[in-house]
């Protein structure tokens, strides 16, 4: 236990994060108290929202303090328990942050349910990213047969499920991804109707051609240039679940022309629903239904997913920076133990 490690925020990024913003430390975990469990991290989930936690700008959640452990969800093995609901050897989900060992209140950890799928799906397609796609589509996007759904970052853990849910609802699914390999995967493996390369200089023309009847649902993961190209194609009564804005997370200078009047005018004239959401808003009422509905389909291979697993806890910062620039292919997970 004396070899336990954690990764803390060493400094706040100025623009794009660098390795200098992180620091690897060793520590000795405390013993589990009454009602607590002692955990050994097996897998660490890396997700885009963590970039926002590195900043002290006002947001929906408190930032990580300088010197504080980077926040994140993990799969852990219980190695000691003083809680009646858990025993040594159990595998649980917990928000331990970026550390190899932790002590948590038993009420703050959750047994893993994957319906026979690999355990790592609890951090991806059957975990927070999957629920983000499910809740955003079911409760905001609500695609209908014959409609067109567009999603950027379509090869990632959220976007890949968004398109598959669109297809299950009878809608067309158009993805946007980075590079021919990812686009081929989205089309050929995930079953999207089309996938466009966001690096294409003529992306706007290609998007209009792929959506000849306009766009009814745009699941927003990226923002920036992609939003600028999607916006003119939104149909009357279009729905836009706003899940993330990864293209804007590291932009230091946000000055520029005021485009809000044009946006609000279009929202009014075309009766567009623009709804930001954080997945946990819906968890209490819908998380169980999400797992019951999708878990068996994932286990049977009816819903496809891809995981990008990197070995070694110390490699988390470099892998995280790569994810922010699109180097990962699928749900990014660090194999810790």
UniProtKB/TrEMBL annotation:
Gene3D superfamilies: Medium-chain alcohol dehydrogenases, catalytic domain, NAD(P)-binding Rossmann-like Domain. Signal peptide: none annotated. Keywords: Oxidoreductase. Residues 17-334 form the Enoyl reductase (ER) domain. The keyword Oxidoreductase applies. PANTHER family: PROSTAGLANDIN REDUCTASE, PROSTAGLANDIN REDUCTASE 1. GO terms for molecular function: oxidoreductase activity, acting on the CH-CH group of donors, NAD or NADP as acceptor. InterPro entries: ADH-like_C (IPR013149), ADH_N_2 (IPR041694), ER (IPR020843), GroES-like_sf (IPR011032), MDR_fam (IPR045010), NAD(P)-bd_dom_sf (IPR036291). Pfam families: ADH_N_2 (PF16884), ADH_zinc_N (PF00107). The keyword Aminoacyl-tRNA synthetase does not apply. Coiled coil: none annotated. It comes from the Bacteria. This is NADP-dependent oxidoreductase.
